[in-house]
Design a protein that fits this description.
transmembrane; elongated; transmembrane helix; TrgA; mainly alpha; membrane; Tellurium resistance protein; single chain
């Protein structure tokens, strides 16, 4: 990896901020889809922070190599945000269950994480939400690529 791959750039910053914003808006769209009485806590903040990380590390690293790479970087960044968010939120829910002594072993905990992630993924199968995530990923990738050409 060249030394410049870790350097902060305007394209990385833009991709991180836009993906954090997309994570926040998508979190707001998920709230009505969940069962009534769900305690969300720091749901939006966690997804925005994950958006910052995925935008910087996944999208920003792949910008500046052409429009098709920028497009695929945006879609890959959104996919990584969704997968990472599903995993971390499922892990948190499993830890809550373990503290209530409803999960007793390591393997049962791992299986529970994937069961919870599957339930959450089925909630995400909502056409406007999928459209927002795909459209946002395309926009972030192409806009980030434009920024990398414009200010490099």
């Amino acid at each position: 990896m060249p030394v410049t791959d870790t350097m902060p750039t305007a394209a990385r910053a833009i991709a991180a901020l836009l993906l954090a914003g997309l994570g926040w808006v998508a979190s707001d769209m998920i709230r009505p889809l969940m069962p009534e009485g769900t305690n969300f806590g720091y749901f939006n903040e966690v997804n925005a922070a994950l958006g910052l990380i995925c935008g910087w590390r996944v999208i920003g690293k792949r910008l500046g190599f052409g429009w098709s790479n920028g497009l695929s970087a945006g879609l890959t960044g959104v996919a990584s945000l969704v997968v990472l968010s599903l995993f971390l939120l499922s892990l948190y829910k499993m830890l809550e269950l373990a503290l209530d002594r409803r999960v007793t072993g390591l393997m049962e905990g791992l299986v529970t994480i994937f069961d919870i992630a599957t339930e959450y993924a089925l909630v995400l199968l909502h056409v406007p939400l999928i459209g927002l995530l795909v459209g946002g990923g395309v926009f972030i990738g192409l806009f980030g690529e434009w920024v990398s050409h414009r200010w490099s």
